[in-house]
Each structure stands twice: as C-alpha cells, then as structure tokens.
Amino acid sequence: MLSYNEILPGTFIVLDGVPYEVLSSRVFRKQQNKPVNAAKLRNLMTGKVVERTFHSSESVEEAEVEKKKATFLYRHRGTAWFCEAGNPKARFSLSEEAVGSALPYLKEGTEVDAVAFNDVVIGVRPPIKVALTVSEAPPAVRGNTAQNATKQVTLETGAVLTVPLFIQQGDVVRVNTETGTYVERVAKGT
Predict the structure, then answer these.
(1) What is the model's pTM?
(2) Which of 120, 74, 113, 67 is nearest to 96 (CA)?
C-alpha cells in the first residue's frame, strides 16, 4: 500500500480495480487543513487522464505492472498488432485508443515496451524518440525567415509534422513521440 505522499510520477496504482499511471503529483497544504496530494492519473485501460486528490488519511494499492519487450508489426481496421520480441508467433493486438498518441510515429519493426496488468497486455510505451523518413515536403518559400520559419511535412507513417524550412523530402528526422514534435535532422536525403 502507498500512502498519499508516496503517489509520485511514474508509479502505478490501482483505484476501483483499474490500473492507473501517475503522470504528476503535488503535495500541498490549504491554509490550516491537512496536506493533500493533487495527482494527474492516466487510466491504463482507456488512456483517459483524470485528476484526483488524495488526503493524508488515504492509501492506495500499488499496481503490479510488468513490462515486456515487443515489436510493432502493423495497423489494420482500428487495431495495432504487436509480437513479443524474438518470438513472431506470440502476437497480440490492441485498439488504437489503447496505444495512444504515439501510434502515428510507429513504423513496422519499432521496438516498444508492452505493459501488462494481471498477465494481460493493456498498453505499450514507445521509444521517446524515433527516426522517420520524410515522404512529402513542400518546397521552402522565400520570404519571412526572420522568425522561426516552419512548414508541414508528411512522414513515412502518414503523420504530419511541423519542421524547419530546410527539411526536404527523403530526409530522416527524429521525432519526440511523447510531444509529437520535431527534434533534429538525422540524415540528409538524396
């Protein structure tokens, strides 16, 4: 059991039989009241984020969450298919909602961490940064380059990304999967 002040970012807890990941927490005291912990939690089953306040008298159960290595295979009709790393016959699927916002940045063969609760895979954690090839990029437009000039490009996975003007079709760029933003150019296209 975890007391209210042990509910910290990165821990997994169980509320009403459902596993949650703690995204952020802040312990504070309102005037002369007892301290509380205001936490943001992500439901690992549905992916929804909720806010919850834990009082000093409360305690919660820590979730037994297991992480396994897995490989992304493909998407088909609203589901994403994966296999255990090194065992292509051990396949499993998750709904696109369970995979979350990182799905547009996953290409075939990407290694991910599968999160299992009670021996059932309920979600995946992609790498924080992935390298993807730019499949479509409009030409750079001359003009207002005094500010941070950017343009929209399409990646090999179909995701649309905002990048600097110097990025061209065929370039390989690194993308942060948590924020969905451009990080750097890895290789210049031919």
Answers:
(1) 0.71
(2) 74
